[in-house]
Amino acid sequence: MSGSSLNPVSIAVSIFRTSQLTSGIARWLVKVDRKEEARYILGRLRGETGENEGKADAEFQDICNVNEMEKKAPYSDSYWSMLTGRGGGKLHIGRRVQLVIWLQVSDGTFRSIPSV
Fold first, then answer.
1. Segment 17-75, tens digit of pLDDT
2. Cβ-proximal residues to 83 (8 Å cutoff; 6+ apart), any chain
3. pTM for this predicted structure
4. Domain ranges of the chain
């Protein structure tokens, strides 16, 4: 049996990842105020007729709504804001998540180093 990677599962995963990527492109286009291009991409991706009619418009409206909410937020959701705790409230959730991630990374790294 050959080691072909073109099986139905890998094809489905590829299609799913491509769908996510193009949605991300549409979000970026809305963020930089290129809404017509974003709507066009979503229409081509989701389809415009039959049972898919209206899905692209609904997703486009959701993207626009989220974009407006992000503009109104007092702090950005950037990595720097998470790292410094800006806008994180009293619990500093972003910094706590960051700490947990780096503790897990370092734990795995240092366990693999043989002791002297």
1. 776 666 788 899 999 999 999 999 888 888 888 888 888 899 999 999 999 988 887 66
2. 94, 95, 98
3. 0.54
4. 1-72, 75-116
Assess contact for 58 and 48: CB atoms under 8 A.
Answer: no
Q: Tell me the backbone φ, ψ of residue 2, rounded to 5 degrees.
A: -75, 160
What is the spatial distance between Cα 57 and Cα 46, in angstroms, rounded to a whole number? 9
> CA-CA distance, 33 to 64, in Å (whole number)?
10
Number of helices and strands in the chain (H, E): 5, 0
Burial class (CB in 10 A: 0-12, 13-18, 19+), 38: buried
- In angstroms, rounded to a whole number, what is the distance separating the alpha carbons of residues 56 and 19? 12
Neighbours of 62 (CB within 10 A): 11
DSSP state of 101: H
Cα-trace Rg, the chain: 21
| Residue in 37, 21, 40, 19 with CA at minimum distance from that of residue 29 | 37
